């Protein structure tokens, strides 16, 4: 019996390994789920892991290796820097090897450029791009009158830059009274102690910090804040990542850390809660990538629709596809730029009520829903001009 | 402003002392055995993980004692069964040996403790703010780190000055046979030095583990900077390493605290250059280049004062 | 005191020592003569364990063949190698200090005595030994080994590169060492000095001892001198 | 007759110990000049100064009437002065042949050439072969220098020194550690190789000194206390007291 | 005079030897030509291309380490800058339709490497030894970090990319398919290897060796060791630039990792493991390390552990590198005594292999329990499936490991004896070992 192989190309060693491994386990869990339901078009799904060490060039070597093994679907998420290179590679590869096309499913790299100027027919993104998230976040911040002085701190690479530029322009438009008192960029995954940055934030008199930091760059930032007793509100993209909740609890920032994302465990939605329970029963982490669930389920749906697992046909089937997303509500894969649109949620971490059954990292604290932005409100325009196969 | 200066000085000194804590072992090994021990940071990591595990079982204070002993024993074994055999093939061979070792140690740590950070906490007896300035808490644990660094500095300095071991090792670097003929057991001394050096790294690990992250990639983040400390300070000079650690800690911390850039000083660049490399240079802030400061220092030192800050030997 | 029986040694596979027998009694001065390359240095190296020895080496009754050299040294055997091997980075004083095996047990040679005996060394006590002149280095090595208080010293070509006057002085030093009850095994090139201070002489040829006797015996034995020593 | 090497008021001190004190010395072209003196007198230091390895504290050094103090060793070498070392100083991992060839390359004008095949330079081959013959190491041509016996290494050291064809040669204890037989051979070799050139030699072996030198200078505590033809020196009481001792008389 | 010369100097190569020598290169060219026919899968073409690049890079590194005795921690700087410039060049050539065909583009990389070596080399090569090593480390970190700051030129973390098919075409080769890239790399590899070999045979090449052995003495035969080191550094930078250029053409991307410590470390590894003492050493090392780093991660999850252990083993047991190990046998082959050691090798091989299998098995079982406990215990390591939860498998691993070690130790002493015999016979026949 034939299998549908998906190459998982993400860091499994080095600084990014901790999140890369969680992603891998999530996908393996999802593959098992699909297989239990009979797989894709009756074929078993298998995730094959490739270690890219968060390095664009290494990713291309691994992608090439995957293709050489006959794999036609690649998935990657950790790092927009890698994503850009991979998308470019896949586009060129498909152009030069007609009939042997491969698809690239992006589950987490959110640099907007990937579905704008540098969009590609072969690239599909299930995560909301950075601009969409910032739009949602600033819409909420607009209403929080307590915010006066905002400090931006981000990782020095494409994603961090897009968070920073979007934050600046959107805040300026929506809340011109807010002052940006700091705008910091720091090296990606290289800082061991954020104390100097915290001192700077403190000295700036900020009451709010906006950051796209992820992985250890978030956990360590919060840890340093906790040590120094910095009390501000945090608007984040990835506070839920490994070590994040623990650090938030340590800093005792009860419902002062906000996160924008496409879902949380504590949504009042039966199926996703069931899924969360099953995942936690097996692994000691919570679902960090709800979009990966959508991605895998939509792959199965698209293959069904196309009655084939041929990449080109699957791609065409995915275009414009409507889908009931994992956390509830409607989503759709926009044909113009292959960006998936779905409801976006803003949540905060802290004490739970009985409405929030799940805690995070055994801290006792959990995510509480603050605001929901419907799919329609997240539709930002795109500049993508896609070259499609004839 | 004053607040930032005071805080940065504090943070800088602290970071510097942490560097020293790690670099002291490397100085001992590097200067005495001439081994560029690329696995030094790995022993630092082992110290942190051993410390984590032992403090789970017996508490932090026993861990602070046992973990370095374990790591030191491991280091001694590495010297005895590995490095010693490689020694005669020269420094490059030794260096690659430790390279390989660093790889292996990292993977072993990942196998045992996983790739995600472990929850290594500051002991509750030290988990309180030592003092508060400018409404910022200064954790007692950091004061403790400072104290340990200084104690280690003092103890090492005294032992190095007062014992003959330093002399014997230095002599053995050039003429190991001769040292043996004079009745000194060179092998045992090398083993001891390596063991002590790695144990020092492990002390740093146990102490820094709870303050920073304890994760399988923690070694890679600190490796090269330790060499910078040792070389800038001057090979073989412990006070030099101390001074260099402080210097680097302060320089880096202050650089982070500064927002100055050419565009800040001379006004924004004309938009004609917006998409050129000139714009990059124009707009980069001092804070952004903070991480490369130590290397600038290294290159400058090697060009203008090759023996390092307080060193006597030419590298 | 030292008795070497049927000593063999190899460099790789080349058989350098082919059964050397030597005996030295306490307090005795014995010279080992021979042409370049016959294996005199190798003999002392083998005794010290720098070259793996095969055979029996009894020192004060116990077999030391195969022991690591630091253990041999602790038994009271001193060695001054041919290439001087001073520690160039250390000062003269530090070099001398390293000769002391156990700082808690002072021996009969003291740092002060040494410096007094060799004013050259005293003047440079705190300079790096590496920059000393060739002759100064030679003296330093001998002194350094004496600091370890050996009962027998093996000295390999101590007068190489020394000025005639100093050669004489070294001869005096050796005599002084012997007077203080230390046995000496002297490996020499210069017949004159060996003849002057030795009680007994060995002549080596092709990895074996070819002659044994007193200086007077050797003086009388032209054949041996012609065949195994100089021209 | 012009001077090959001339030292004018040369002094050298390390820190505050002065090792060479006001040395004036002239070695005539084509002369074989021996420098003797007690250990630590500063003979090797003087060589280091002349060859550019060290800088004199004061004073000047002239090579064929041109001031060379302050030049780097390789610059002085290019002006025709070559020296050997008291401690053997060869290219240990290279074969005897290559050792000698390296010493020939600059002098034959090939310098840093990276476009010529070194094996196909006839004049280099010829010269190297000649020197190899001269120092009697033909049989050891392909042996790495580090594996030669001590005496062979000393011979190679001399070979390297003269290979460049310099016409001023400085030899620092060339026969140290050699047996009598070997010493004699070495002396003959040196005599032959330095025919027509200027030689400045340091030796402790008086038979070598008296057998070879046209002129002798005696250095004691960094000062030249006597200078003259061998007979004068032998008879000089100051020299006897400071250096020769009674024996050598 | 000439007569003495011919009897004393090493003889000129005979016609037969010359034939053998040139035949070797021609043979290499033919092999390179035919290789894709023998291994035709896409994977092997990529692998071969990477090996070719790595060969040039390692050989260029050995100009420093092996030939001139300079340990560099920053050789990737010249490789990376070559790569970056080539990416820009391809973009410029494509955009302006300049008549420069792709096969000439690596030269741009080489010249870039050369230029930066010329600029940075003079101060770096002032000293040798540890000082040089540390300066190279500092310079490398500086350049690599600056690459992240100068985003317009270096493209930040993501790097910059290009499309190699958009440049001027010759003979209708668009260099899209990997096979065309393979031939491009192969041709350049051959050229670069020949050039670097030739370099070792020049006066400069010889003086590099002299500087490595004894920089002090070099000064007294008329050479300035600093200049020698500097020139070697420049050549090394040039060839590293070519390697970087080929890598850039192969991947069509250059990012800051090209310049980084990992890249510099890998080339040091490859060169040393191959053997710095031989010209072909780095070639062997490049092949070995490339295959290892590409293949090992497919065979086992904890590849990094094996990677580390393999290096430790090579450093411990093969001080002259892999080539050194092989070359040790040359005198035996010449003397015809290789047969004496062969049987002992075969005897030693079996228990050693058993020991290694036991080690691997044990490691994988531990990994299974430490990392994947709960998953299916039927796992695969190095392509061999087994059941990690099976007690018999455990026992087997233990027996193989302990027993293998015990027996292997004995057999290795055999090897030692056989080796001694064989070499002494060889020596008696006058063949130096
Ligand atoms: N490390 C070595 N490897 C191989 N052969 C060696 C080594 N050391 C010495 N030999 C050889 O061993 C023989 C004996 O050497 P040894 O040094 O004992 O001679 P010696 O009698 O002390 O002469 P010398 O007057 O040169 O000091 C010589 O032929 C020498 O070439
Ligand atoms: N770099 C230096 N620093 C300090 N002192 C030095 C230095 N170089 C040499 N000396 C000292 O200068 C003096 C002269 O040394 P030099 O080597 O010239 O003596 P020499 O005449 O060659 O003696 P020998 O005949 O023993 O070789 C010695 O006392 C030596 O210790
Ligand atoms: C895994 C994610 C945190 C990656 C990040 N969003 C990026 O675009 O680079
Ligand atoms: Mg000898
Ligand atoms: Mg001298």
TrEMBL record, chain B:
Q: Which GO terms describe its molecular function?
A: transmembrane transporter activity
* Annotated TM spans: 12-39, 59-83, 95-113, 140-160, 189-212, 218-235, 242-261, 281-304
Q: Does the keyword Cell membrane apply?
A: yes
Where it sits in the cell: the answer is: Cell membrane
The topology of this chain with respect to the membrane is: Multi-pass membrane protein
GO BP term, pick one: amino acid transport
* Swiss-Prot/TrEMBL keywords: Amino-acid transport, Cell membrane, Membrane, Transmembrane, Transmembrane helix, Transport
GO cellular component terms?
plasma membrane
Family listed: Belongs to the binding-protein-dependent transport system permease family. LivHM subfamily.
From the Swiss-Prot or TrEMBL record, give the protein name: ABC transporter permease
In which organism is this protein found?
Bradyrhizobium icense
Give the lineage. Answer: Bacteria, Pseudomonadati, Pseudomonadota, Alphaproteobacteria, Hyphomicrobiales
From TrEMBL, chain C:
Please provide, alphabetically and separated by semicolons, the GO molecular function terms listed in this UniProt record.
ATP binding; ATP hydrolysis activity; branched-chain amino acid transmembrane transporter activity
Keywords attached to this entry: Amino-acid transport, ATP-binding, Nucleotide-binding, Transport
Against Pfam families, the record matches this protein to: ABC_tran
> Can you tell which superkingdom this protein's organism belongs to?
Bacteria
Tell me which Gene Ontology terms the entry assigns under biological process: L-amino acid transport
Pinpoint the ABC transporter domain residues: 2-231
Read off the SUPFAM superfamilies from this record. P-loop containing nucleoside triphosphate hydrolases
Summarizing the function annotation, the protein's role is: Involved in beta-(1-->2)glucan export. Transmembrane domains (TMD) form a pore in the inner membrane and the ATP-binding domain (NBD) is responsible for energy generation.
Which family does the entry's similarity section mention?
Belongs to the ABC transporter superfamily.
Q: What name goes with this protein?
A: ABC transporter ATP-binding protein
Organism annotation: Bradyrhizobium icense
TrEMBL record, chain D:
Domain ABC transporter span(s) in chain numbering? 5-246
The molecular function terms of the Gene Ontology recorded here are:
ATP binding; ATP hydrolysis activity
SMART domains for this protein: AAA
Q: Which domain of life is it from?
A: Bacteria
Task: Give a GO cellular-component term.
Answer: plasma membrane
Q: Which UniProt keywords apply?
A: ATP-binding, Nucleotide-binding, Transport
Free-text function comment from the UniProt entry = Involved in beta-(1-->2)glucan export. Transmembrane domains (TMD) form a pore in the inner membrane and the ATP-binding domain (NBD) is responsible for energy generation.
Protein name as catalogued? ABC transporter ATP-binding protein
TrEMBL record, chain E:
Q: Name one GO cellular component term.
A: plasma membrane
Q: Transmembrane stretches, by residue range?
A: 21-39, 45-64, 76-94, 100-123, 130-154, 181-199, 227-249, 269-294, 306-326, 346-371, 392-408
Q: What is its main location?
A: membrane
User: What is the topology of this protein in the membrane according to its UniProt annotation?
Assistant: Multi-pass membrane protein
> CDD domains, from UniProt?
TM_PBP1_LivM_like
User: In which compartments does the protein localize?
Assistant: Cell membrane
Q: Which domain of life is it from?
A: Bacteria
Instruction: Tell me which UniProt keywords the record has, alphabetically.
Output: Cell membrane, Membrane, Transmembrane, Transmembrane helix
Among the Pfam families in the record, one is BPD_transp_2
Q: Output the InterPro entries linked to this UniProt entry.
A: ABC_transp_permease (IPR001851), LivM-like (IPR043428)
Q: Which GO terms describe its molecular function?
A: branched-chain amino acid transmembrane transporter activity
Q: Say if the entry is tagged with keyword DNA damage.
A: no
The protein, known as:
ABC transporter permease
Originating species: Bradyrhizobium icense
